[in-house]
Design a protein that fits this description.
Helix content is 6%, strand content 44%. By secondary structure, it is mainly β. The chain has a single domain, classed as Beta-galactosidase, Chain A, domain 5 (Distorted Sandwich), CATH 2.70.98. Strands 1, 2, 3, 4, 5, 6, 7 and 8 form an eight-stranded antiparallel β-sheet that branches.
Length: 162
């Protein structure tokens, strides 16, 4: 998969850019080589160590007061889920969830989230940091997805045999 694009000059910055896959059914078990073991973002990854980790979509969920993005991992070089292995030409961000990005955005409260029986995988070129101007300082420019020329390539194939 390859994404090449140009962002409008007047665009401030993007929250994320990548692909969301829906995996029908499945356990949500996955492994990855990247930063972990807990969720991390570009501006919240100092305590995350690069290594090989295993997790599940259920374990990655964080019950924030308002449903939102959760379980992101930065610096990912390889991700294996549902019999597929994803590898980037460079590092990427990845997220495995029981909820789609749309459903997380649409829900105002946790009780509005409904599992659809699928696993939602997000393979992102980059995800902007968490900082916001709503309850703290504005997001530092170093942690914004503000590039105007974008090139993101990754490949996926059946899981490698050990």
């Amino acid at each position: 998969m390859s994404l090449t694009g140009r962002v409008r000059e007047d665009a401030y910055y993007l929250p994320r850019l990548g692909f969301e896959w829906t995996i029908r059914g499945g356990s949500g078990d996955f492994s990855y080589y990247g930063k972990g073991p807990g969720e991390n973002y570009s501006d919240m990854s100092h305590c995350a160590l690069t290594g090989r980790y295993e997790s599940t979509a259920q374990k990655e969920y964080v019950p924030y007061v308002r449903p939102q993005e959760h379980g992101n991992h930065t610096g990912v070089r390889e991700l294996t889920v549902a019999g597929l292995t994803f590898e980037g030409a460079d590092t990427f961000s990845a997220n495995v969830s029981e909820y789609s990005a749309h459903d997380l955005f649409a829900a105002a409260h946790a009780d509005e989230l409904k599992k659809d029986g699928n696993i939602h995988l997000r393979v992102d070129y980059r995800v902007s940091g968490l900082g916001s101007n709503s309850c703290g300082p504005e997001l530092d420019p170093a942690h914004r997805l503000s590039e105007k020329e974008l090139n993101f390539t990754y490949r996926f194939a059946p899981e490698k045999a050990e």
